[in-house]
Amino acid sequence: MIKKSALCLSLSLIFLTACESPAPVQPTPEPTPTPAPTQLPVFQGETTLSGTVALDAQSVVVEASNASGSFRQAVNANNRNYRIAGVPVGERIRVQAQYVNNTNVILSALVDVAAEQREQNTPLNIDLESTALDLIYRRAAADGRSTLVNTPVASLRDMASVQTYRAQVLQVLEEIFTRPIDAILVPVQEAPAIVSALDVAVPAIDAILQNQPVPQPSASPSTQPTAQPSTSPTVSPGFVPTRLLIKPGNDLTIARDTELKLWVAGVDGQNNQQTVTPTWSTVSATGQGSIDSAGIFRPSSPGTFRYTARLGNLSQDVTIRVTDGELDSLEILPNSDFSLNVGQSFELLARGRDTLANEVTVTPTWELSNNFVGTVNSDGVFNPQQPGRVDVTARARSFSATLNITVESASTFQIEFSPNQPTILTGRSQPIQVLGLDPSNNNVASSFNFSVLDSSIGSFVSGDASINGIVPSAVFQALKPGTTQISVRDIFSNRTSTFPITVADNVPYISGMSPANTTLTPGQTVTLLGENFSPVASANQVRFNNVLANIVSATSTSLNVTVPIGAFTGFVNITTDGQRGNGFPFVITPRLNSIFPSEANEGDIITLTGDHFSTDNPAHNAVFFGSTQASAPINVSNSSLQVRVPGNLNSDINVVVRVKGQLSNSQPFQPAGASIPVWSEQAAAPSTRSGAKARIISGNIYVVGSNDSDDSRRLEIYNISNNSWSTGASLATDRAGLAMAELDDRLYVFGGSGDNRRVDRYIPADNTWIQLDNNNEDERMEFGREGAVAEAYNNRIYLIGGRGSTGRVVEEYNPGTNKWTQKQSSPSRRFEAASAMYNGRIYVIGGGEDIAEDRITAYDVDDDRWIVGLTPMPKRLRKASAILLQNKIYVVGGEDETGTASDAVYEYDPAQDSWRTLRRLPSARSGVALAGISSRLYVMGGRNNQSQETGNNFRGNL
Question: Does the predicted TM-score (pTM) go above 0.70?
């Protein structure tokens, strides 16, 4: 057993003398772990986490998050203490403490917050011991060890049988922290010594939990600290780099007010990479600037700077151009959301533009919306650890950019190699194209490492340049006769495949094509250039992929051939006198002629007709509906294919086909549902406004409120039958951002701007407003609300969300007694969301105080519980409006994360938890007043993209 005093290190920047044992949630006997049941998570209440942080530093940020990402909160530590309120109970919570001035230094802790901790304080200290335990759980999740992952944290912490292995990890952490934290140059969690210790500890602990024999390690874990500076190169034993690779590049442009962090990878003969620590020297500079030992370049003036990184006898230069402009924008590359599998590390990059419109490289700081799905290091390398969704945010200067990564369970990739089994003339080269295919034989974006079993037969050279319109994955240089194996590893899935390749003397070889670098057309005649052809045309055989071509004439160095009908992009292959030769790339642009039917439902099979589709593998034809790729096509011929319509599509989209990287023209397509609603303009409202609320009573639509206080008290009434407007009695006070519900043919208005706690009721028959709380504290809602939602159910009204600290508050109002009851808090803050009631559940959709969200949660009124994990809305929206009609929820308008008004209309089926995109609004708008009856929607007012409020009134027939 490790004594607590062993943790109390006397360091200048690590202060652990005040360590306290975390209070256990409850004593637990030796567990018999079972996997957690698979069900939608339910919000059960909240607690407050507090404790000490073992980092004696001036600037420490403490962040807590849950696995689903629905909760995330960060605070600054105050004199090594932290306190985080609003933490959900009944869930596993990870807390991280990060030293702001050196983001490599992170301590962490894990806790299972018991339901008994609801509305209580839960103590949790963050120190080296808690970090060691958290690292064990992280590795177990990454390795898929469900027994260990599902073991309660308190149980594992108190279990004597695993203490030895926990101590091994703790010992490495203690040794890493024997130096000042400013000198730790490698993320603590990624230090090789930590990785080695976990390699031994995690399998052993997992075996003990399952009453299995403990596996014997091949070597003891290293206890030498590695997350610290060293005077010798940081290269693992056995790794012999042959060249250096500077990242994010070796020819860079940056803005004058930004720093640039360079990092260097050593690359060995098999193209394996490992981060190394070189020395840096200045080659030349036309301005003022400096680079430190960590590779951080800091400019003082514009100019061009050249530096050399050296590691032993290896070196690599980098050129940095500093512009005279300041950073003006920031984006992450890739610039769209994407998916990864568990264990598939991905290197994120960032770029921007300066105030002079120059494109510049940016090395930002990186952060994640939760700590469970994965980690991101200071170089932007994201390591996914378990399935889930996470937002990655890059920050530089005052700018930020965010994208969403979905981490999925690992799947196996197929790897395809073209040309197939070529024979290459000695001394010549062969371009190679590799495709990664998912289990459905659908194209996936992959990157590959190449190696040759016998490097004396051939090796790989640069393949960056386009060859006849195709950029090859690699280029193989033939050195001497023989047959060897090429190994291709997909770096995402870590799947490796091998392919034979032969080098021989006196074999036919295609070196070029005339016309060169142009797209071909079946039926045209082209000339293949090369050597060792037969002058007898019939002795040569030319195939465009697998389609045989007619040879018009032949010499020993050229063949005139007709591109065959049925050919498609790929490689032309040569065989002469029975001797197989190489392959040479060519491009035939695919053409998309028609789509039938041109409107179909999600999941329907449609037929695409055109020309030059690939027939050797259906997956070579990637069909895109807008930016959404469909599953692999079926029934593929050179002129037609069939594909299933994917879900969550926008209306009025274009479809294209990509054949081996070559894009066709586009054709329009309408997802079914995009033909409804059928919109018609009705009589405009007497005034313009946005943010109003609408309810139907006895054939009249009552519209009240606004985002602007000056307009918010006005009541306008639309008569559906005669398409006319009238005005009603105004509210007594202006209240922007109010909430409204209808119960028993009466309107109830709640809150509004200024944390308003007022409640008013409107009786249409009398055209009168009555203040219900009478300024009586006992009859007022407990919290003032602005931007909340209100829904009526079973003679009660439920008020959810609001701005700021009220964003998670749920209150029940009883109009009969004029009393309020606080209910189960929302799992997340909801401000300016949309809502609708269905089957005893209030669905809260989108919203967001700082940025629009696509989140949807449901409050089960009868059970007083929250249901999370529902299918997100197709688009992030706030200030949208929602209504229930015919057992479906319709979400209309809103604004996206950029503040742009939306014309989107979505249909959500709560019974199926599925979304469908409908026909867009006639014009984009946010903050519409929405009402509906039977199969008709009424969309009134709102704010357009010119920031103008409107009084337009549209009816949509479903």
Answer: no
